[in-house]
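Researcher: Structure for this, please.
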Amino acid sequence: MLIKRIATVLVLLPVVGWLLFMASLSYFTIGISFVILLAGWEWSRLMGLTELSSRFIYLIVLQLIMIAILWLVPDIEFWPGAPEPQSLTQWLNIRYLPLWILSAGVIWWLVCLVSLLSGKANWLAGPDLLWARAIAGLLILLPCWIALISIRAIDILQSSLAGSWLLLFVLLQIWSADTGAYFSGKSFGKHKLAASVSPKKTWEGVLGGAILALIVAIFTATPFGLELSLTSIIIISLILILVSIVGDLTESIYKRQQQIKDSSHLLPGHGGILDRIDSITSAVPVFAFILYWL
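Model: Predicted structure, token format:
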């Protein structure tokens, strides 16, 4: 399994590197849109849709919403909204549609966090609430799509790679937390984090992931353009670690509801796209939201 995971990563790394640092913003948007649509296809399965026609309808709805956003707010260089809204009237301007959706995503993850902490997270994937699971998919995927484009677009008009480095920073936070949790959990894991949701996750894994992610944050934040105090960097890193865990556990809830181990088998050793980006769907929108208001 580990060899498959490593092999898949080695194949994907050049693609990710090209999208981050070499692709134009337009090509980046196309690439990310394709990934989100693949994730949307997998989400339709987590919704409990079994007929291909129903799954295609959900995928088409997701795609039409993405197209509508691009049509209504075509200047992706200024996403999620510029300048910052100074009044309610400005806030209601259609140019801030990406910011509305990004804000909705942040609120969604706060709801998921509270639900997990209260031990009542199973309502998120209620078996009789197909419409709720459909909306949940939109709240998970669309803000992530907007956040990825928004961060990548930072200073793009000045031919700067500032957004690319910031995006790499948050991705490294997620990957390092995941890697640290994987190895520390396998080596020392004894105390279950959320046994009813994800039996393999342990507090020891969380601690190992957090330590590695914090180390990575401290050494990469300033070189990657996040010029803040050490305290601020640590706080942001801890927020990203927490939210990435929430994203991971939330997807696990939906998979357990449908008795599915992996969202698909597209990525050998990793499962599906959603299995690989579950933490990204939560951490990246929150990071984009923080960057916007800094």
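Researcher: Any notable elements?
Model: The chain has a mean pLDDT of 90. The chain has ten helices and two strands.
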